[in-house]
Amino acid sequence: QVQLVESGGGLVQPGGSLRLSCAGPGLPLDYFVIGWFRQAPGKEREEISCISSLAGDLYYVDSVKGRFTIARDTTKNTVTLQMNSLGPEDTAVYYCAAGHAAYSSGRNFRCAPWSEYVYYGQGTLVTVSS
Question: What are phi and psi of 5, to 5 degrees?
Fold first, then answer.
């Protein structure tokens, strides 16, 4: 069964940075919409960013705009999430998912709900603490 593999999580101090990577062994990620989600302790999973397949449209939830950057690395068949200016509120397990569904709100690209993706990763823990 194809699964995605996240890496790059860990412990970081407030204000620090981490780069998460989502790999898809045997899965050409360029042809998929890739979403990043996170789930903090005691909270529901939330979408934070996604990137469309060919057009490269991007979406960020308001809480991470200006701090997080999603990008494809075609040569490595990965999708990265660069996270800067991290705060304790960013502590969560981060998941990536791959699928084909995408939405638009007017001219704005939007992520599909978690349940509409096809492939999922196991998650990587990000802890922001001093």
Answer: -125, 120
Residue 66: Cβ within 10 Å count: 9
| pLDDT per residue as tens digits for the range 73-92 | 999 999 999 999 999 999 99
Asked if residue 23 has pLDDT above 80, the reply is yes
Confirm if 107 and 65 have CB atoms less than 8 A apart.
no
Q: Say how far apart CA 117 and CA 100 lie, in whole Å.
A: 7
Q: How far apart are CA 19 and CA 29, in angstroms?
A: 18
Per-residue tokens: 104: 């638009």
Instruction: Report d(CA 86, CA 128) in Å as an integer.
Output: 7
Mean pLDDT of 89-110: 91
Contacts of 60 (CB under 8 A, 6+ apart): 48, 49, 68, 70
